[in-house]
């Protein structure tokens, strides 16, 4: 059974940093793209960042220069380093293997002004 387990969310002041982790089990994902999505209250879920098996990355414009997605294939884990956080980054963040429609349970990130 495939599981994606996120950790690292929490409450932080504007300008602060958080590092999200997503540990995958039940399958090896080194040949698959992995991604982080987020969903704020009353809004649709949106792609935040995506990383290819080879390490190529894409980001939504609103986080470019502030967030960094990375992966450790040996640990079957993907990370999201979030710096210079803003109140508008407040959302539930979800780890995903988008090509296989696998999702984690989500982790709350709250940025106070």
Set out the fold topology.
Blueprint: E1 3-7, E2 10-13, E3 18-25, E4 34-39, E5 46-51, E6 57-59, E7 67-72, E8 77-82, E9 91-97, E10 102-103, E11 107-112
Parallel strand pairs: 2-11
Antiparallel strand pairs: 1-3, 3-8, 4-5, 4-9, 5-6, 7-8, 9-10, 9-11
Characterize the structure shown:
This protein is mainly beta. 0% of the residues lie in helices and 52% in strands. It has strands at residues 3-7, 10-13, 18-25, 34-39, 46-51, 57-59, 67-72, 77-82, 91-97, 102-103, 107-112. A hairpin with a 6-residue loop joins strand 4 (34-39) and strand 5. The mean pLDDT is 96.
Helical residue percent band: under 10%
Shape: globular
- Number of DSSP helical runs: 0
Average residue-wise pLDDT: 96
Percent in strands = over 45%
Terminal Cα span: 40 Å
> How is the main sheet built?
7 strands, mixed
Tell me the total number of β-strands: 11
Structural class: mainly beta
Regions with little confidence, pLDDT below 50 for 5+ residues: none
H/E topology pattern: EEEEEEEEEEE
Rg from alpha-carbon coordinates:
13 Å
Observed structural traits:
single chain, 113 residues, mainly beta, 7-stranded mixed beta sheet, 4-stranded antiparallel beta sheet, 11 strands, globular
Short note summarizing the structure:
The chain has 113 residues and is mainly β.
């Amino acid at each position: 059974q495939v599981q994606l387990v996120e950790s690292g969310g929490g409450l932080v002041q504007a300008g602060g940093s958080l590092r999200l982790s997503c540990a995958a089990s039940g399958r090896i994902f080194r040949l698959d793209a992995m991604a982080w999505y987020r969903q704020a209250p009353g809004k649709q879920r949106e792609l935040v960042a995506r990383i290819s098996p080879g390490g190529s990355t894409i980001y939504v414009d609103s986080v470019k220069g502030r967030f960094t997605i990375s992966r450790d294939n040996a640990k079957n884990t993907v990370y999201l380093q979030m710096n210079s956080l803003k109140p508008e980054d407040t959302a539930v963040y979800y780890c995903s293997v988008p090509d296989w429609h696998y999702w984690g349970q989500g982790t709350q990130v709250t940025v106070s002004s």
